[in-house]
Amino acid sequence: MAQKIVVGNWKMNLELNEAKELIQGIKNTQDDVRVIVFPSSVFINAVSEGKNEGVEVGAQNFHTEPKGAFTGELSISQLRSSGATVGLIGHSERRAYFSEGNELLKMKVDTAMANNFDFIFCCGEPLMIREAGKELEFVKMQLEESLLHLTKEQMMGKVIAYEPVWAIGTGVTASFDQAESMHRSIRTWIHERYDAETANNVSILYGGSCNQANANELFSCPNVDGGLIGGASLKADSFCTIIDSY
Ligand code: PEP
Asked: Most buried by CB count within 10 Å: which residue of 96, 119, 148, 173?
């Protein structure tokens, strides 16, 4: 069975005191749900120290090199030593604003694997691609070019977040059918590439204007194993309501 996961992506929001206050209010009351928050990296240490049991802290980004002359960048070992246990790879904002393409994202996947660092791999199509009816082939290519080179053993338990770009931060959410159709396809591709056991062990999260009002419906899709939440993760009560949707 795929692990159920609820993720909060705080992006470039909150100052230190606000981050400390928010993490105190985040409680994971569900034994079988993994909860992870991604604060700004500069606050990972403080957020890790203030978190409640059953909550993990992750890094929104990391560099592929272990150390050296890369001003402004952070390595996995630095992030891990600050309290991060998992990293985000391929968020659409990094793809769009920081020119992170499939080739670099594959390198990040390999860096994470080499460092035994857990990660969430994000994928999703822009509006133009969906309007052209090409969303399935677009997302399949993102996965094939950056993630599906892993071996079966490496793929077991991995986490993918499907985040249609047109739904992120827009208030427009994918419908039950749109989410389920993409998630089912992703699981099918993994089944075809590996096998049923691997496909059923990969968690596929939905992201894109998921909030306390629609989480219940989205999480009821058979192939949706949780959510990656942006805006609605910035308030403890809305994020906890989403966690409790399970
Ligand atoms: C995100 O940060 O990936 C995201 C899905 O944001 P929002 O929930 O605000 O759409």
From this structure: 119
Quote the CA–CA distance of 132 and 108 in Å, as a whole number: 30
Find the 81 Cα to ligand 1 centroid distance in Å.
27
Domain boundaries of the chain, sorted by first residue? 4-243
Q: Report whether residue 218 contacts ligand 1, using a CB cutoff of 6 Å.
A: no
Q: For ligand 1, say whether the CB of 90 is within 6 Å of any of its atoms.
A: no
Record the pTM. 0.97
> Any idea which fold 4-243 has?
TIM Barrel (3.20.20)
pLDDT of 109 above 90 = yes
Residue type at position 74: L
Residue 66 to residue 48: CA distance in whole angstroms = 22
